[in-house]
Specification:
By secondary structure, this protein is an alpha/beta fold. It is 34% helix and 24% strand. The longest helix is centred in the C-terminal third of the chain and has 18 residues. The protein is globular and about 55 Å long. The two termini are 36 Å apart.
Amino acid sequence: MSGTVRWGVLATGGIAATFTGDLLAMKDSGAEVVAVASRAEAPAKAFAERFGIERAYGSWAELLADDTVDVVYVATPHSAHREAAGLALEAGKHVLCEKAFTLNEREARELVDLARERGLFLMEAMWTYCNPLIRRMTELVADGAIGEIRTVQADFGFAGDFGAEHRLRDPALGGGALLDLGVYPVSFAQLLLGEPDRVQADALLSPEGVDLNTGMLLGWDSGATALLSCSIVGALPTVASVTGTTGRIDFPQGFFHPEHFLLHRQGREPEKVVTGPGPQGLSGMQYEAAEVTRALLAGEKESPLVPLEGSLAVMRTLDAVRDRVGVRYPADGPTRG
């Protein structure tokens, strides 16, 4: 690939706008946004005008046929991730796909297999893993700063008045708290501990059969546990904590895109860990955009920061949680593999 990575944005919602704004604000990044697509021409044109993007398409197919696009950012709701990312890979495009990666592990495995078969780059947009402070935390843990991990706690929730017609209440659209919000605590725990050996869960379900409020207890043969929760009916603190045998790391509200954390070590005063001042006014999605750009320019087919096997493991855990609480999506089919 040449010295510039040319991005196409598929979908025009809020997360697409946040990502595009962060990407365009990155100076000397080796990346540019050359096209955007929606299912209709009007929103694509409005998005293109807002961000100064040269080409706007009223269909996915037009974007995927654009030879100037190297990589597609899939920003659709997760119910469309399998279709959109799959079409992009079949068209020979590299893909960054929003999380939750897909509706279930089977769909995620299909995308991973397709990317590997075609020799294309694929990454789940788990921006948390690319955040400099999260990377610093994993370095400290690996260096033994808090000893052996014993407990991870994390939650993500907000209180919303979502009617029965809202996508968060629709099983066909992957509704519920788990895939929208619970993916963050689960991914956080598995970044540190890997795939759990045991999964327990309980949930409050909506009349439509999606989870409104979910608690998870994950267990590892090492003796470590993770207590996680997500909600769309309660404003949870959205904090995280990692406790080891000799210390603890605490993340404040918004743990999934932190600006600092507190490191507690036995016999020492708490240490506030921060990164250097980043670009002002950005959300933090620039880090995942930079990682994809770096990997593509280096000729890599997946990111070491967000490995595909890790994304598959998270999807297996999310599937297991849904099994425990009784949430099924039409896309699951008669059985889940």
